[in-house]
Design goal:
alpha+beta, 5-stranded antiparallel sheet, 2 domains, about 180 residues, about 30% strand
Length: about 180
């Protein structure tokens, strides 16, 4: 069993270090992002749970959007990730182990998760969760999800499944966005 995730900031540090598996390419600071040479859309993310966020930021707008964000909160409260291919989303949500098996909150809406769950939100429990997830996740992603749920007891795993592999680990069609204590 791994150490519990104690805060959003604790999670972000461990996420960027690839502790939780496949994730979006991520940069801790604007300088790190600029040095990377990445030219695709980015997501300027907040280290505060439920805090403001900026989706679909073009490379040429990243500096101005970062400046806007850092007027709201200090720069150490922000980080940057490559924008996920939301138009290729098969299913996204959060899953945890409950007393009766897996519990899933999910959506199939092809938008960033926060917006997608606000638009459409379903729940499932027990064996149906395993069947549903095995039908959309590649085998490596499914096995990795099971490992995360075993290693982080009493945690929720937030994820997105795409039509094709995407993220930092080749071959995975699932990105693990967050692992947090519930």
């Amino acid at each position: 069993m791994r150490l519990p995730v104690l805060s959003k900031d604790d999670f972000v540090r461990r996420y960027a270090a690839s502790e939780f598996g496949n994730h979006a390419p991520t940069w801790d600071t604007l300088d790190d992002y600029l040095k990377s040479g990445y030219e695709g859309l980015v997501h300027i993310r907040n280290r505060v749970a439920g805090g403001p966020t900026y989706y679909d930021v073009k490379a040429e707008d990243a500096i101005a959007t970062w400046a806007k964000a850092t007027k709201q909160q200090p720069s150490e409260m922000w980080y940057i990730s490559a924008m996920a291919p939301t138009e290729k989303t098969l299913l996204q949500g959060e899953v945890q182990r409950g007393i009766w098996g897996l519990e899933l909150t999910y959506t199939r809406v092809r938008k960033p998760m926060r917006e997608a769950l606000a638009e459409e939100c379903y729940t499932a429990g027990g064996l149906s969760v395993s069947i549903l997830l095995k039908n959309v996740m590649d085998v490596w992603s499914w096995e990795h999800l099971e490992r995360l749920l075993d290693e982080y007891k009493d945690h929720v795993v937030e994820f997105s499944v795409y039509e094709e592999p995407w993220g930092t680990v080749p071959g995975y069609n699932t990105v693990f966005w967050e692992v947090r204590a519930y």
